[in-house]
Amino acid sequence: MDHKEIEVVIIGIGQTAVGELWDLSLRDLAVQAVQAARKDSGGFKPNAVYVGNYLAASGSRQANLGALITEYAGLIGTEGVTVEAADASGGAAVRMAYTAVKSGMIDCAMAVGVEKYTDVLGSENDALIAQMLDADYEATEGLTPAAQAALLMNRYIYENQVPREALAGFPLVAHANGANNPFAMYKKAISRDVYLRAGMQYPPLNLFDVAPYADGAAAVIMTRKDLVPPGYPHALVKVSGSSLIVDRLALHDREDPLFFSAAGLSVQKACDQAGIQPSDVDFFEYADITSLHAILSLEAAGFSKRGEGWRLATDSTLTITGSLPVATMGGYKARGHALGASGVYQAVEAVLQLRHQAGLCQVPNAKLGMIQCLGGLAGTAVTHILERVDDY
């Protein structure tokens, strides 16, 4: 079969709760997600497993996750490999699974994202997280990804005359949605007053402007549409577009640090493959690692003009019933940011939306969704277009 004729669908999804999961190991978390996805698929066994992870080799002292996870999930003899792209690792694993099936060389592929952030504590964790930056010119100077985002947020506020309180809308939407997600780390809505009273973490970013790092695992299983058996119990979700783009890693090497060029190009390429415009999607699962990421992601995707992305959070645009729902199940801020697993969580949540199984988080009549995860300050950007398929 010509790869251009192959339609790739997500046949199974699974996830664990996100949080500080002290009593579960890296392999425990991954296997729980894998088993849930296989059960959801009706028992599909993948031919290849792509494990998205960022910290295991340094933080958990465990490399070669392809072998570890496939063994403990009962998939010995399966192709397995680790995919690393900082906190875009999960999205990169989803793309690897998609391209494997799309190529025609693999009939069924699984993307697993897993992270055990709590295997390391304190300042050592800050150093491990900073590995996503340029080691020679950024990390060695004491920068962390959140501090770097704060520097850019200060510049963005200055250049665009943004009222500091205008940032409140992004975490308010995320926490309102996360309150209805049973897998989220924080299941409680917050008020504007609570947001404004929160302490500063990385000025001007306060406690609610920065997503909490966490443990968790999620998995998706993909196959060819023609291999889906009769009687499959869920609405099918097709991967209509997929793109991974990288930018210059070091912030000082970029032409414009306040524009996520890789994110914008990734959206463009994924939408072109799907034959749509970004404005056609019913929801956008962006990488709200910080409020800066949320703003610049919206601008890069073309949902607002440069310097005006913050305005989208000042009304009801981004809410579940708005014209552009985001972070529909809590996003990184309320669900929790499980680093190398976050991109797979986005895929799982998008499938739930498109199957109309998202419960109180459901976007009305969702048929087309876009998910995007970012590595660091968009040094890597991975975008997927997912589409509900009713005619099969």
CATH topology: Peroxisomal Thiolase, Chain A, domain 1
> What is the first-to-last residue Cα distance?
19 Å
Q: What is the approximate shape?
A: globular
SSE topology string = EHEHHEHEHHHHEEEEHEHHHEE
Can you walk me through this structure?
- The chain is of the alpha/beta class and 392 residues long.
- The protein starts with 7 loop residues before the first strand and ends with a strand.
- It contains 12 helices and 11 strands.
- The model has no long low-confidence stretch (mean pLDDT 96).
- It is globular and about 55 Å long.
- The strands form 2 sheets. The protein has a 9-stranded mixed sheet, sandwiched between helices. Strands 5-6 form a two-stranded antiparallel sheet.
- The chain has one domain: 3-Layer(aba) Sandwich (Peroxisomal Thiolase, Chain A, domain 1).
- A hairpin with a 4-residue loop joins strand 10 (368-375) and strand 11.
